[in-house]
Amino acid sequence: MTAAARLPQPPAVRAVLTRHRLRPIEALPWVCAIAVYYAFPDYLALGGQILVMTLFVLSLDLVLGYAGIVTLGHAAFFGTGAYVAGILAVRGWAEPLSGLVAAGAAAGIVGFLTGLVVLRTRGLTLLMVTLVVTQMLQEAANKLGWLTGGADGLQGITIPPVLGLFRFDMFGRTAYLYGLAALFIGWVVARTIVHSPFGRSLTGIRENVTRMQAIGSPVFRRKLAVYVVSAALAGIAGAVLTQTTQFVGLQVLGFEMSAVVIIMLILGGIGRLYGAFIGAPLYMIAQDQLAKDDPANWLFWIGLFLLLVVLFARGGVLGLADRILPRLRKGGDGG
Question: What value, to the nearest 5°, has the Cα angle with vertex 20 and ends 32 and 71?
Fold first, then answer.
């Protein structure tokens, strides 16, 4: 061993080198998900949808939280995957796993083609172009009724058992585990990207594009690459939703879907990887409960809740936890 290798590494270097290592706390979301399966069997249908939206939010976090690409049209990829999975099933290709792959590939292709244009813009223009792309796809789905079902939605979707063994039942057991498996694979992909040199370069692009260009980083190609990966993950999330509910309608390509996924990410924490695991369940459980308690005004309470988070919990729930936990530790040490 050389003398240089024996020198102690600066804290910043050690943090970067050890950042990719799995920590025990990272098992918590999966332990909770498995516990929910056994503890709340009557809510597995809702739980399956929460898992789908968590994957969708996770895909958005890659482009918004890490690459700094602000978009109002992420539903374009979610809807593409949803419709591809549904159309394939109706046309005779109903095998679920290959349907997921096809949906992810189709969404990735849409992400690549639109990214060539979208990522050359910035600011308000970027927001408007992403929104226009989604609206164009929604209108195309509406007009091509012979293929997509139009305003009535694509019906008659029948999905065979996963691997020929696990049938989608009315209680949502298989759907929940299927969504959990898809989310886990998506998390592995996202985590690998975030903790790789490529992921660190995305953070640099988010913080200072000019400086990254000055040091020779291929900014556009890297933004396009993560945009495509994010689109593919969103497409897989949409496909899981179609396969587990056996229906797909125009709402998967709507502006509301793009807005809701951003709200979920803000609630959990942008650029934190695990913000999706908090924001999606928090929003959907609150929505479900408020819609039962106050059907006429539940949107008002959701808006008020979001306003409080933005004002008093900047950085989302994870950001709030980062500020509170150190104070609690200091208080405990002082006691």
Answer: 75
Residue 128 and residue 145: Cα distance in Å, rounded? 26
- What pLDDT, in 10s, does the model give residues 230-275? 999 999 999 999 999 999 999 999 988 999 999 999 888 888 888 8
Dist CA 208 CA 229 (whole Å) = 22
Please state the domain extents for the chain: 26-276
String of b and e for 156-165 (b: at least 16 CB within 10 Å)?
A: ebebeebeee
What secondary structure does DSSP assign to 55-83, as a single string? HHHHHHHIIIIIS----S-THHHHHHHHH
Q: Select from 1.10.8, 2.60.120, 2.60.40, 1.10.3470 the CATH code of 26-276.
A: 1.10.3470
**Which pTM was predicted?**
0.90
Do the Cβ atoms of 115 and 224 come closer than 8 Å? Answer: yes
Separation of alpha carbons 314 and 324, rounded Å: 12
The alpha carbon torsion through 6, 10, 14, 17 (nearest 10 deg) reads: -80
Sign of CA dihedral 164, 168, 169, 173: positive
Write out pLDDT tens, residues 85-99. Answer: 999 999 888 899 999
Q: What Cα–Cα distance (Å) separates residue 205 from each residue in 192, 213, 280?
A: 18, 8, 26
Residue appearing with tokens 């949808």: 49
274 close to 29: Cβ distance less than 8 angstroms: yes
Supply the pLDDT for residue 3.
47
